[in-house]
Every structure is written in structure tokens, then in C-alpha cells.
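Record type: monomer structure entry
Structure origin: computed from sequence
Chain ID: A
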Amino acid sequence: MPRKEKTGRVVSTKTKQTIVVAIDAFKKHPKYGKYLRRTEKFHAHDADETCNEGDLVTIIECAPISKLKTWTLKSVDERSEQLVAQ
């Protein structure tokens, strides 16, 4: 079975070797038909601490590293504009 991959924005890099990635999805309400934005957060392992807040990253499923970390950083797809300008 292939490992799952997800793409999202880094919202936190405050803990050591850990990033928090937020993934937005639009779900349609079953009765009313309105589209609602749902945000899900995943803790991912960033061994080299290369990510910054606002980066667009791809994470991949892995064996549990800690209580919350079951994802690993695969690649940084796009760097955030805040740190490129500085």
C-alpha cells in the first residue's frame, strides 16, 4: 500500500525538529449545499529544521515518531515571501 502524501502550509516551527502543517479543504454541507472550509493540522518531523512559517510543503506518512508525529517532511515546494524579502 503506498504511503499517503499531503500538501499544505507550515503554520508553526516552534518545537524542535517538528513543523505543524495546516491543510485546507472545502466540504459541501449535505443538506444546505453551502461549501465550508475545514482546516486540519498535522505534526510532521523536520530533521534538518529547514522549514519556516508560511512555506508550502509536502509531507508523507511514516511510522509514529512520537504521540502526535506520524508524518515526515518530503519536500519544500515553495518558500514563503516573508523570509525571501529579508
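Annotation 1: Residues 5-85 form a domain with the OB fold (Dihydrolipoamide Acetyltransferase, E2P) fold (CATH 2.40.50.140).
Annotation 2: The chain has one domain: 5-85.
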